[in-house]
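Here is one chain, start to finish.
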Amino acid sequence: MFELRQIIVLLDQSEESVTAVEKAAILAKKTGSRMTLFTSGYDGALNNLQNLAENARDAYLSRLLIGLDSLAAIARAQDIVVHTEAVWDKHAGAALLNYIDGNSVDLVVKATHHQNVIQRTFFSQTDWELIRHCPVPLLLTKGTAWHPKVTVTAAVDPVRSNDKPSFLDDHIIQCGLDLAAQLDGQVQLLHVYDPTPLMIYLDQPAINSTDISEEIRQQHLDALASLASSKGIATDLAKLEMGSPVQVIPDHLYENDIDIVIMGAVSRSGFERWLLGHTAEKVLDRITVDILIVK
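Its structure:
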């Protein structure tokens, strides 16, 4: 289930975060959640002030809180309860993870920067730290506003060709259904398969590659249709695409004007590290829409 009571927005001073706060406010308003705007800062020079160091740090953090309050006004104008938090730490990701460890948080929201000219999103060290270590759902936003009717795409793999556990698709879809319901939107399924490696292996004179290709497609289509049916999702909202996921997933999301794509991560070594999978990590920086990573 994707239940929201406490949403935290990580404000990075190097990112334009107004849209991220606006989107968090939309979710908070729809779900009755509270919000926390969180940032961290550090200036090594202030540690050299001897007896004045503590006062200097307090003044530094106070200036950060003033900046947070200006952004908090976006949500407070909608009668959303907003708390602000600024901590002394040079590593924003680690600071937020420490905060989450001691507080109840249901969703982390953070802005990312997508460069339209080269069609790439620049993920910072903090972004990757959160992708791999954040224990709660993580919404990485772009600068584009959501449509009035939000379209959520759940990226699934019903034949588990990427060695993904079967329960992950169920979790991704349920989060998509919950999120779409909260936003009065619509959820779609997207499954991309790449038959190229197998077709190369089967490229023998005695084998009818056309028949094999159609058989592979039908296998994926049947698996996707079965998954959609089991979740009460209409067949026309279950999209099957063929090709390299690294190319096809971003193109599909862009061409169909999707607002949010949901991808899943699993823990391979306890709760210390979450892995999206090799393919998913390669596709992330080409995606032009908001990405919700569920754990």
